Amino acid sequence: MNAFLTKKNLILLALILLGVFAVVQLDVDDRLYDWYLTKTTPETVRKDAIWLPDYQVATEAKELAGINNNASGVTWDPLTKTLFMVLNGPNQIIELSLDGDVIRRIPLEGFEDVEAIVWVGGHHFVIADERHQSLIKVTVTPETQVIVREDCPSFTLDMEAGDNKGFEGLAWDPKDNGIFVVRERDPMRLYKIHGLVGDKQPATMRVEKSEALSEGAKAFSDDLSGLHFDPKTRHLLVLSDESQLLKEVDEQGHPVSFLELSHGWHGLNEDVPQAEGITMDDAGNLYLISEPNLFYKFTRKAPGQ
């Protein structure tokens, strides 16, 4: 009897260990939660959301030509129908095609550590300097050859700056011209900055904090590395490099859907190594930049797939 019990206990222990291994190594907990969302989210809610489970990778880990390191944030420009990315060594703006081909480079003089970029209407963009927690508004036209920081309006949020854990993601809300900003970690933060973008001059700068939205951005994330705001759904896409996760968050801070950035998910053959920037075009395609120099494109699956 004792031998039987011992054998039974060993089998039970082995099953428990296999279960723990599956949860930790195979992301079973994430898969179960993804399955739960898919099964419990009403179709009406999905139609009003971006709904990340519907996306599959279309271009995976394409190397950006002539770029060896430090690829960072990215944004979609609906006027040029191209992407604009920042490079922080040397500091540059890189214009890309929707297939990830380099179109042109624009040097950034006087900038120190650019990490994020967002289009804010017309020929205007806002760039984040991480180390100094500064937002700089720049103008990029087809004729622009170089941008000098001292010629550009800027705003510095002097809170916990100087430790290289500053601004990592930007997103623009065209409804109120507010700029969403995320701080990477130590601690993770989400702010909304008003006054840098718009026609009113002189501008009155204002920092808005939403605890609910901030908590939603931080949920399930070990860090915050990228951001995109979708004006159609008014949802935020929040990127986490360390958690290998892209999540959709509504205006109340509630998580809506998830896109895992590890192999076996959404058609990925390999993990996305260091996700740094995310944006979406007007057709709903997602574009992701991964350091050192990788480009990804995700598209919605055809109905029935």
Automatic annotation (TrEMBL):
InterPro entries for the chain: 6-blade_b-propeller_TolB-like (IPR011042), YjiK/CarP (IPR009722)
Pfam families: SdiA-regulated (PF06977)
Gene3D superfamilies documented for this protein: TolB, C-terminal domain
Signal sequence residues: none
Keywords: Cell membrane, Membrane
Keyword Protein biosynthesis in annotation: no
Protein name as annotated: YjiK family protein
Protein's cellular compartments: Cell membrane
Recorded superkingdom: Bacteria
Family to which this protein belongs: Belongs to the YjiK family.
Organism of this sequence: Kistimonas scapharcae
